[in-house]
Design brief:
3-stranded antiparallel β-sheet; single chain; disordered N terminus; mainly alpha; 2 domains
Length: 490
């Protein structure tokens, strides 16, 4: 008797490794953040790495290094920066840890780092990527003109060799060493991630980011400069400690954007308001979906999952639930903080997330001008504010529980459609299907929990990059603009 094994050239099976963005509702917010903060992303928190990669590009060009040699030089320089940042007590700067520092912690605690081991892109090294931490920064460095698009770091038109090499003086010599002693590295504090603000490379990067002087209206840097001016104005007028949590409600709600003499002149301010308000809905969809996925226990019919959501809702018409939610405008006509009032501080509550989506959908008819345009983005898209407003209007007189039953099936259908649109046939014949929630013969099952974090708007990373370049500093527990920063921005 013979058993069919399938084609010999193909590996059997379906790879169901989870993907990101299962509902694909983040695109508008992420695109707007890219327009408003070009040159900084959610994975570029340190100013000093812009300088370090520029230095490697300068040195690789000067020496005519091959690609493997440039990779080795970059990794060695990044190990030096991480090791110096470990050795240097830089106090409360508000900056995150240097890249690769956690992976090197064991070696550093032993007092010495052997470069041939630490800099290798293998398990046990500071990072396994052959280009170290250049990959997350590469697009930003090209956007700023520091580098040009190439297979290895290559100087761009904004790469100021004199200031970069002066600011990082000595790092190349340390990178060429066989080993680094932690005690010795304490004598090189100028190479720490926190030291750029007082160095020549920090001054160079600060000017590149802030672009002092008038910029053309179509300039990508103009949007970033105005964003920086808005952020720093908030820091001058309010106590800003946690940038994400403290800045978000100040931009999204109230009269500040039109009453403050500086904020009122910035064309990006109303755009940021629209993006901030839209992001409340994006976050609510993400948390609601994560809750639904977490409720799938074993094999479960889709109707049972919808019923679990329905059981959380109060009896009665959807209209009664909607009418009991907070006001979304203030007496002056500005957006009121309804989403902030409804957002739970503890575990995800699906009823609260639905309430956030409902009040957010009200803003379709309340907002106007550039705020409304930035809030809506592409018109009428599924799960967008207009779509939600339409669904609520047609279901208002019906049961709130029936509404969430239908909404659950809508989300299940969309997640399947998104996963199939991202599915890929791999070279070995297997199919990659990026999803955590699956359906077989009418039954749902999950392979892992779904993420529920907010979409990053880059303001926290912009703050730490500006701090690393000397534009901002942490004073106690709050951020403030430095004297040098004020000169660049006024």
């Amino acid at each position: 008797m013979h058993t069919a094994q399938g084609p010999a050239w193909s590996t059997s099976g379906l790879d169901v490794a989870a993907g990101r963005y299962p509902l694909s509702i983040e695109r508008h917010v992420m695109r707007m953040a890219d327009l408003l903060v070009p040159g900084v992303t959610t994975v570029t928190p340190h100013a000093r790495y812009y300088s370090l990669h520029a230095l490697v590009a300068i040195e690789a060009e000067r020496r005519g290094l091959s690609l493997p040699a440039a990779q080795d030089l970059l990794r060695r320089c990044e190990v030096v920066m991480a090791a110096v940042s470990y050795a240097h007590d830089h106090g409360e700067t508000g900056l995150p840890r240097a890249h690769g520092l956690d992976a090197l912690a064991g070696r550093l605690q032993g007092g010495e780092v052997v470069m041939a081991e630490a800099a290798q892109p293998v398990k046990g090294g500071y990072v396994r990527n052959v280009w170290g931490f250049w990959s997350p920064y590469a697009a930003s460095e090209v956007s700023l003109g520091i580098l040009v698009p190439a297979s290895m770091p290559t100087p761009g038109p904004a790469c100021a060799a004199g200031q970069v090499t002066a600011g990082l003086d000595g790092i190349l010599e340390l990178a060429a060493r066989r080993s680094l002693g932690v005690d010795e590295l304490r004598g090189h504090p100028h190479l720490c991630v926190c030291a750029g603000g007082g160095a020549a490379d920090g001054t160079w990067l600060a000017k590149l980011l802030c672009l002092p002087g008038e910029q053309p209206a179509e300039s990508a840097g103009r949007g970033r400069r105005n964003t920086i001016r808005l952020l720093t104005r908030l820091m001058r007028t309010h106590e800003i400690g946690d940038v994400t949590d403290d800045v978000r409600p100040l931009i999204a709600y109230g009269d500040f954007l039109r009453s403050d003499p500086v904020a009122a002149t910035l064309e990006t301010a109303p755009v940021w308001r629209g993006v901030m308000l839209r992001n409340y809905a994006v976050s609510a969809w993400r948390r609601l979906w994560s809750w639904l996925v977490s409720e799938v226990d074993g094999l479960m019919p889709a109707d049972d999952l919808a019923e679990r959501f329905a059981d959380k809702m109060p009896d009665g018409a959807l209209a009664a639930f909607m009418d009991g939610l907070p006001a979304t405008t203030t007496p002056t006509g500005a957006p009121a903080p309804a989403e902030e009032q409804l957002r739970p501080s503890g575990p995800v509550d699906p009823v609260s997330e639905l309430a956030i989506l409902i009040v957010n959908a009200r803003r379709v008819r309340e907002l106007s001008g550039r705020v409304r345009d930035a809030f809506l983005g592409q018109r009428g898209v599924e799960l967008g504010p207009e779509w939600m407003a339409w669904r609520l209007a047609e279901s208002r007189s019906g049961s709130s529980r029936d509404f969430v039953r239908r909404l659950t099936h809508d989300l299940l259908t969309r997640s399947r459609r998104v996963a199939l649109s991202k599915a890929r046939r791999r070279s070995d014949g297997t199919l990659w299907l990026p999803t955590r929630l699956h359906e077989r013969e009418g039954l749902l099952f999950r392979t892992s929990q779904e993420g529920r974090g907010d979409v990053g708007l880059r303001l926290a990373q912009l703050t730490t990059v500006l701090a690393g370049a000397g534009v901002l500093e942490m004073a106690g527990k709050t951020w403030r603009v430095t004297d040098a920063g004020q000169v660049l921005l006024d």
